[in-house]
Amino acid sequence: MALMLMQDDVTNQMQSPAQCNENSNTMRNFSRIRYASYILLIILAIAIIGYLCGCGTYTNYTDPFGPLYWYVSTESPTYHGQQIVVISYNIELGKKLDQVIREMGEDSIWLSADIILLQEAELPGIVQIAQGRSLNYVYYPSAVHSKRKTAFGNAILSRWPLKDPTKIVLPHFEPLRRQNRIGTAATVMVGERDIRVISAHTEMFRMGLGDRLDQIDSLASAIDNNFTYIVVGGDFNTVLHQVLQRFDRSFERIGMLRASEGVASTADVGPLGIIGLHLDHIYTKGFVITGSGVLTETRASDHHPVWIRGRFAGWQ
Description:
The chain contains seven helices and 16 strands. By secondary structure, the protein is α+β, with helices and mostly antiparallel strands. It folds into two domains: 14-52; 54-312, 4-Layer Sandwich (Deoxyribonuclease I, Chain A), CATH 3.60.10. The strands form three sheets. Strands 1, 2, 3, 4, 5, 6, 15 and 16 form an eight-stranded mixed beta sheet that branches. It has a six-stranded mixed beta sheet with strand order 7-8-9-10-14-11, with helices on one face. A hairpin with a 2-residue loop joins β8 and β9. α6 runs parallel beside α7. 35% of the residues are buried.
């Protein structure tokens, strides 16, 4: 009888392969949930610290026509190539501007850049970068920082002439600091080709998802799809992959694809930067993408620059 009881106990404790697989899947799902919760807690802590460090409401520039800062050199280079390089970079208010400029001279991708899209940029820094590299620029500030008391916003810099500057005021205000977001748009004239370009910065997760989707849909709807060539890049604050996929669909509806898909993370958070986030992206229309990447060695900002190289569609 004792032997029979022991055998019964062993039999009861044995599990079928299906039960083992089910338990294994349960453990994996639990690990994913725990990891996602860990990420969200860290991001929430960073957001709270960021708010406390920059407490107070922002003064927003909601006028769709300005203020505008626009410089175009009288000299226009001749274009003989078949492709362009675009870099997008959130420079964190230019807090380490000297380092930003120094790092721009340390990688060949910066030296070959045709279009540079900056977010969280201030006018003195834009002018310094542009003058040092003989670049044209269009810049719209979006707001005055509550702590620094300086205006900051989005800029487009290019070795090529710029025309038709436009400010895209995105809907809704961030609920804590009442900050407004914008897109800075201009047409970049590369030889005989006109490229419609937008440097964008959409809100963080402190704003509800519905309002954030309104922002990206408004940005996409403001794009003149009559242009053969379009580039939209910037800081989209896409912490969750599901949100990024929804943003992708907004651009896909107007024939644009995420040219920077598959690159490394553009921001590192958490202890020792162990969590990589894909916050910054570049979308294009009319280009065959021949290269893309992230300059992960930069230390001048809390973001890394993301870049793409694209050939004009139709060229062999």
